Amino acid sequence: MSFSDLFDSEFKQRNKGHFSAIVRVALADGIVSAEEKNFLDKLATKLEIAPSEYEEILENPSIHPINPPYLYSQRLERLYDLARMVHVDHQLGDKQEVVLKKIAVGLGFTPSNVNYIIAKAMSLVDKKVDFDTFAYEMQNMHK
Predict the structure, then answer these.
(1) Residues with Cβ < 8 Å from 81, sequence gap 6 or more?
(2) What pTM does this model have?
(3) Are residues 51 and 86 in the same domain?
(4) By its UniProt entry, which Gene3D superfamilies does this protein fall under (predicted)?
């Protein structure tokens, strides 16, 4: 196995774990709504989840370990990507902030601050800022 294959494999495993965690959030209330299903479909494509893996994860999301990002910068990067997907597509409708809050807690953000974090993230995404600006603003929002 080459070094690039190893990196590719690790990247795909991380994406499967990330997708699995989001499926768990969607299934928290026992059902996946049509809006959530559309969001999961689009997210699976972006994360390069194969159709067979997608079905497997929907049936049993616990088969892949949850790998929350260790570094704050990685959490911000995932939040940025998810916030942009949710905001641009509006597939979750009124549920977008609720789902993002659950995902943010799953990513490791503090539950007591999650409302403020999501409001700030959505505000920045609405302004179409790049990731560097997003990260800077999120890291300095209390200053």
Answers:
(1) 46
(2) 0.68
(3) no
(4) TerB-like
Number of domains in the chain: 2
The whole domain housing 117 covers: 68-142
Q: Which of 93, 92, 116 is nearest to 104 (CA)?
A: 116
**Cβ(20)–Cβ(57) below 8 Å:** yes
What is the tens place of the pLDDT at every residue in 66-79? 666 778 888 898 88
d(CA 24, CA 113): 22
What DSSP assignment string belongs to 63-125?
Answer: GS-----SSHHHHHHHHHHHHHHHHHH-TTGGGHHHHHHHHHHHHT--TTTHHHHHHHHHHHH
pLDDT in tens, 25-70: 777 777 777 777 888 888 888 888 899 998 998 888 888 766 667 7
Q: Are residues 77 and 99 in the same domain?
A: yes
In terms of domains, do 72 and 125 share one?
A: yes
Q: Are residues 88 and 135 in the same domain?
A: yes
Domain-terminating residue out of 13, 33, 67: 67
